[in-house]
Design a protein that fits this description.
- There is one protein chain.
- This protein has helices at residues 16-20, 41-50, 70-77, 125-136, 160-168, 212-220, 222-225, 233-243, 258-261, 277-286, 347-350, 368-374; strands at 25-29, 32-37, 53-56, 61-66, 90-96, 102-112, 115-120, 142-145, 150-156, 180-185, 188-193, 202-208, 229-230, 291-297, 308-311, 314-325, 330-337, 351-355, 358-365.
- The chain has three domains: 16-59 and 148-241, 2-Layer Sandwich (Gyrase A, domain 2); 62-145, 2-Layer Sandwich (Alpha-Beta Plaits), CATH 3.30.70.1400; 290-375, Elongation Factor Tu (Ef-tu), domain 3.
- Strands 10-11-12-9-3-13 form a six-stranded mixed β-sheet.
- By secondary structure, the protein is α+β, with helices and mostly antiparallel strands.
- The chain contains twelve helices and 19 strands.
Length: 375
């Protein structure tokens, strides 16, 4: 099937005017103009942790893979085993290169044995599509780029189900986490998935583009009554950092494998083969790989991407992502730590980040949300 071609102005969100009317500050992100915030990013962050918030993530890419050998094709390119996924289930997975590095992380939605919806990162949409098309030529399946056909609106937070049930009068509770259903709104079929990128319960709506404005306006009605908020990229990043979710280009890249990233739970080494499997097994056997680790800064300065990490006076790694956690009012982030330092136990006294020439103490541990749940 012929892939749809995006129009030259496709980097502009359909809802851009909607967002600017709500005081959104727009920035360029992955080739798209996206809302950074609508005011206070800390307030937006806490709205998602305490209530419910709306995200326009229509920059993400969507592909439909269909055909009699779809599952065989996807089992070659994805790290999970789709024979163990049921219809209506959504699964997190990775696409690796021959060296085991991650080309993209994604959610795959199994509609049937012969039909799958794949949601990929915006920055990688074109490269992943090209990669998949090249490999799929050996299989009886087709790949259709639906990125221009759908918008994607996410609703996240502990009150999300309550807010949506009141608004939509649909049985959203019947959708289990990491599952999806097809539902009708405005006499049009939507895919509704109980998935998200914040660490909170929530739903993602794959909205046909002709209904996107109508659905956004419908969600917007709750902002005054339910005190919900629209959420920008700044809060989206702090939310995912607190939850310990990777961002491709930071905690994941063609040079960082699932081993380094701590994502082997999304890799099925038991299935016969997938691209990158042999390289990952070799790394396991050699037991020599760096590790992505989560830190909390003990001072106010925020270590940023590229800042060096030291164990005592030895260079031990570098920062991948850094930001501010509203949950604990402290800087947090991730670092890629060299193998020989990753098991050091005296984390609280010997680790530092070099922030513009200043040695800032840090300590490693679980992602903040997991730390909070432990206590």
């Amino acid at each position: 099937m012929q892939a749809l071609i995006k129009m030259p102005d496709s980097n502009k969100l359909t809802l851009e005017q909607f967002h600017t009317d709500r005081s959104a500050k727009m920035i360029d992100f992955s080739g798209w103009r996206m809302p950074l915030s609508y005011g206070s990013s800390v307030s937006e962050h806490m709205a998602v942790r305490e209530n419910s918030g709306f995200f326009d993530v229509s920059h993400m890419g969507e592909f439909m893979i269909s055909g009699t050998e779809s599952i065989e094709f996807l089992n070659l390119v994805l790290t999970i085993d789709l024979n163990r996924v049921i219809d209506g289930q959504a699964k997190y997975s990775l696409i690796c290169n021959n060296e085991g590095g991650v080309l993209d992380d994604l959610i795959i939605y199994r509609i049937s044995r012969d039909a799958f919806l794949m949601c990929v990162n915006a920055a990688n949409t074109e490269s992943v599509l090209s990669y998949l098309q090249k490999i799929s030529s050996d299989f009886e399946c087709s790949i259709e780029d639906l990125s221009g056909n759908y918008g994607l609106l996410a609703v996240q937070g502990p009150r999300t189900l309550e807010v949506l049930q009141n608004l939509l009068s649909k049985d959203l509770a019947s959708i289990k986490r990491m599952h999806f259903q097809e539902m009708k709104f405005f006499d049009t079929n939507f895919f509704v998935a109980r998935t998200g990128y914040t660490g909170e319960d929530g739903y993602e709506f794959f909205v046909p583009i002709e209904c996107l404005s109508l659905f956004a306006e419908l969600l917007d009605q709750t902002c005054k009554v339910e005190k919900t908020k629209w959420i920008g990229l700044a809060a989206r990043d702090s939310l995912r950092l607190e939850a310990g979710y990777p961002l491709h280009g930071h905690e994941l890249s063609p040079e960082i494998t699932p081993l380094e990233a701590g994502l082997m739970w999304a890799v099925s080494l038991k299935k016969e083969n997938f691209i990158g499997k042999e390289a990952i097994i070799r790394k396991i056997e050699l037991n020599s790989f760096d590790k992505v680790m989560y830190y909390k800064a003990l001072d106010r300065r925020i270590p940023r991407e590229g800042d060096k990490i030291f164990y005592e006076n030895e260079l031990a790694g570098s920062v991948l992502s850094g930001g501010y956690s509203p949950q604990i009012s402290s800087p947090i982030g991730t670092a890629l730590v060299k193998n020989q330092f990753a098991e050091k136990k005296d984390f609280a006294t010997s680790w530092f980040a070099d922030v513009r020439g200043n040695r800032e103490p840090i300590e490693f541990g679980l992602p903040i949300l997991k730390e909070i749940k432990k206590t």
